[in-house]
Amino acid sequence: MSALTIKWYDAGQEKTQTIYEQQPSKNPGTVRIGRDPLRCDIVLSHPTVSGLHVEIFFNSQQQKFFIRNLREQNPSVVDGRRLTRGEQPLNQGSVILLGQTNIQVTGISTIEATVLSPPPVNFRSQPGHTPVVAKPLLSQHHKPSYGLQCPRCDRVSPHEHLEIGCQWCGTSLAAAASVLVTPNQI
Asked: What was the pLDDT predicted at 114?
């Protein structure tokens, strides 16, 4: 899974956001940026930013993140070039100017998926000993289940929270590791 990290200043505070290639959003397949919190996934407060200004998306064929301008009357500037129509690829270090707000691409990475396998069965291999099977993680009344381990705070949330995010710190669970859990861990 690919990820793009951006950084900007809003109301005097540094903000950072990581965008994942399959991140849940208000417009599936894209992450929209602008002033309108009803239509945008990343909300900027500066009055020179349009309500719905640009969107960032991952092109799986080219394996790159792109930016698309959504306001011809208030075009974005990407790496010093006005983007009035169409789309442009984003690179590490790219600078996006939306109105008077600068956004910098601080990182582009590929996150390897982790495949989980069941724990091995424990056998004693000494002569004369009966093999001992490791105790199951869960009682017979509970079926094994999986949860999502937050990449920021490491707490485990149920899979139903994939689109909501971590219930403790609010981080997107798009890049969360799937872990085997007992019912009392969630």
From this structure: 53
